[in-house]
Amino acid sequence: MTERFDHVVVGLGALGSAAAYQLARRGRSVLGLEQFELGHHRGASHDTSRILRHSYHTPEYVRLTQDAYDDWAQLSADAGRELVTVVGGLDLFPPEPAIPMVDYTAALSEVGVPFELLDVDQVGERWPQFALPAGTTGLFQERGAIVPAGPGTAAMQDLARRYGAVLRDRSPVASVTGTSVALADGTTYSCGSVVVCADAWTARLLAPLGIDLALTVTLEQATYFAPEHPEDFAPERMPLWIWMDDPSFYGFPCYGEPTVKAAQDCGGPVVDPDARGSDVSEEMLALLAGHMGSMLPGAGRPVRSLRCQYALTPDRDFVVDRVPGHPTVAIGLGAGHGFKFAPTFGRLLADLATGERERVSPTFALDRPALVDPAYSAHWLV
Ligand SMILES: Cc1cc2nc3c(=O)[nH]c(=O)nc-3n(C[C@H](O)[C@H](O)[C@H](O)COP(=O)(O)OP(=O)(O)OC[C@H]3O[C@@H](n4cnc5c(N)ncnc54)[C@H](O)[C@@H]3O)c2cc1C
After folding, report:
1. Is residue 377 in some structural domain?
2. Which residues does residue 240 pair with via DSSP β-bridges, in sequence order?
3. How far apart are CA 280 and CA 220, in angstroms?
């Protein structure tokens, strides 16, 4: 007997869990399928923390962050606990940065999100932990925040189930159509619509639907450092930060433990998600530790590292859209910076799945030039 659901969600990382939660919350019958065990560490949504921020490079993204803060607030209310820890966000632009500061100041100004520009001395007065090269400018946005990665994803799964969704793990999906999903073991499910949130594995599920999605999967690495004086890196004394250059790095104050987490953005090797290891890269660790040693000398020595995947589109923009020619198949893809938007993507994907909206934005469309033009030159630092 083929079981039938209103919606089947493929992939239960942050995005799929958010979509299952939003659809179940609207009284729909939902089946969520995950190839590995729930909470596994082989994708992109595990570990402790992720950055939520307003500072982005276009007004459209800044507006989307306003939705993200609202959707995290709604999720926190539904979960009955605060999931957002506001610590302030400091974007650091060295002289002649690879990432233009004007994109950020212009976008924030156009949308009306307040920020401050600070020179090296002003940053040093407020946060003496930083040792910055002369001429660096700090863009401080007071609402920069931390959201929980693994626990946040689990919270959305718990809520999805509380609203009646059926979540099945160790259920690898072999193929999808507009009205059915087949597992690798031959089990099939019929449904009114399918939502695919398979991140690094998305391209192979879309190929049979005629979509050749240009995705680059990289194996990133985050590292925890043990400061001698963790109190100096407490959330009330230290903002999250992003080094806006090439290479680009980012980091957090202490969050639930006396360590300082940091990582390089887009520093990992290209991998096949099914043929990659999880060993620590000493090379990536050395590059990061070098940067930390000069910029945050008190952060201490590295104590542990973990690996995690990015699924990068050529323009690093998301995909939140229906599949052209298959209106009952919706796709959500976070392009290596989507966790902060997970509750929002869940809501938008539910709108697409239920027909409450037909498109989200040309910027996140599957048929946009960056995704269909093989000559498009990829750029990932934003
Ligand atoms: C080191 C690192 C730091 C990051 N920092 C930030 C940050 O600070 N802020 C931010 O906003 N974003 C950040 N991101 C990006 C963010 O974490 C991701 O964009 C987001 O987690 C993607 O969620 P997802 O659900 O799409 O992907 P995933 O969590 O990878 O979920 C996809 C799921 O689909 C499952 N799946 C795939 N194929 C199938 C199939 N055929 N059948 C069944 N299941 C399948 C997979 O097993 C997986 O569980 C970071 C990412 C990394 C790696």
Report:
1. no
2. 89
3. 10
Tokens of 20: 């299952």
Alpha helices in the chain (DSSP H): 14-25, 59-79, 101-111, 120-126, 150-162, 202-206, 282-295, 342-354, 369-372
Tokens, residue 209: 């639907």
Ligand 1 environment, Cβ below 6 A: 10-16, 33-36, 43-45, 50-51, 172-173, 197-199, 201, 205, 220, 222, 263, 308-310, 334, 336-340
Are 205 and 367 in contact, with CB atoms under 8 Å apart? Answer: no
- What is the rounded distance in angstroms from the CA atom of residue 44 to the CA atom of residue 332? 13
**Total residue count of the chain as it appears in this document:** 382
Q: What is the pTM of this model?
A: 0.98
Residue 111, class by beta-carbon neighbours within 10 Å (0-12 exposed, 13-18 middle, 19+ buried)? middle
Q: What are the pLDDT digits (tens) for 210-267? A: 999 999 999 999 999 999 999 999 999 999 999 999 999 999 999 999 999 999 999 9
* Rounded Cα distance, 310 and 306, in Å: 13
Return d(Cα 77, Cα 149) in angstroms, integer: 18
In a domain, 381, yes or no: no
Radius of gyration of the CA atoms of the chain, in A: 21
Q: Would you give the DSSP letter of residue 57? A: S
Last residue of some domain: 311, 339, 364? 311
Question: What's the CA-to-centroid distance between 43 and ligand 1, angstroms?
Answer: 5
Q: Where do we find the tokens 């619509």? A: 193
Whichever domain contains 166, its CATH number is 3.50.50.60
Atom of ligand 1 nearest to the CA of 51: 8
Alpha-carbon distance 338 to 352, whole Å? 18
Residue-number span of the structural domain to which 341 is assigned? 3-45+150-215+315-372
